[in-house]
Amino acid sequence: MMLQSHSRFLLQTLLTRAQNLDKAVELDYQWIEFDDVRYHVQVTMKNPSILLLSVSLPNPPPEAMSFDGLPLGAIEAIKTAYGTGFQILDPPRDGFSLTLKLNFSKLRPDEAYRNSLLTKLASIREVVMGAPLKIILRHLASRTVAPELDRLVAIMHRPNETFFLVPQADKVTVAFPMRFKDSVDTILATSFLKQFVEARRAASLSSAPSCSWSPTAPHELEGAPKETLSANAGFVTFVIMPRHVEGEKLDRTVWNLSTFHAYVSYHVKCSEGFMHTRMRRRVESMIQALDQAKPLEKTRSMNNKSFKRLVSFVTNVFRHSFTILSFVSSKSLSFLFAPSSQGLNDVNSK
Fold it and tell me: Does the keyword Zinc apply (predicted)?
C-alpha cells in the first residue's frame, strides 16, 4: 500500500469551505502529519473567502539542500504547480516555513477545475519537499546533469535525516540510510527490506528500478558525513533510469522516493500490529480453553473432597470398631483364661 500524496484532512477542509462560501464561518485548524509536517488553516469572519494555509517543515540538517528553511527549488515548484491562483506571503506566519493565501472568489466557477486545484493544494507537501528531487530527475529525463549540483546530493525527508543521490546523465542512484528508534522495529524493518529486495527479482517487476540492501554504507556514499551514515537497519539503494521518470511517471517516482522511509515504517507498524493481534487471539483461545476446563476441575475437586470425607468416616468407624473389638476381645480372653472359681465369681457378681 502506497501513501497518498495529498493530505486527506486538508483536502476535506478545502472542499467543505469551497462548497459553503455563502456562510461566514471562522476556521482555525492545526494538525501534524507523518515526518513532523505541521499544517495550519485559518479563515476569519471578516474575510470568509480568504483562506491562509501555513506549512511547517522539519529543520533541515546542514548537509541538506535548502534555502531559507525550504528545500531548494520549492518556491519555483509552487509557482509552477499552482499558477497565479495563490499568493505566497513573505514573510510567512510565525513558526511556519511557508504561508499561502487563497482567494476563493477569484477561482473559476467550474467545479471540476476547482476540485482539481484544491487537490493539488492538498498535495503541498509533495510539491515542496519533492522540489530538489524533481529537479534532478527532470535532468535525468533529458539525460543531463544540473551543473550546479555536487557529485553527492543530500535531501531531507525526515526530521534531521536525509537520503542521498548520485546524479549521472544515464541514471540516478538513490541511497537511504534506514534508522529506527525501537529495537523491534529495527528487526522487522531489516527483514522487510531483505524481502523487498527479493521481491524485485520477480519477472513481473523486471521493469522496476533495481534495488539492493546492505548492512554497511554503499560505495556511492563515499565522502558523506560520518554522522549521516549511522543506520541500524542497513542501507537501501535504488537505481533510477530515464524510463522511470518519463511523462506522468515523474511525479509518482518523486513521491515514492520522498516517502520511502514512511512507507517502510507504515508496513513495519502494520506487521507489528498484526503480530500483536495474532498473539491476543492466541491468548484468548487459551483463556477460553482454561475457562472450559474450570467446571471439570471443580467437579474433580468436589469429588476429591467427598472421597476424603468418606475415607475419614470409614477410618473413624474402623477406629471405633477396633476399640470396641479390643475391649470385647480383652474381656473375652480374660474370662476364658481366668481360673474357673474367679470366672464363676465374676459371673455370679455380675
Answer: no
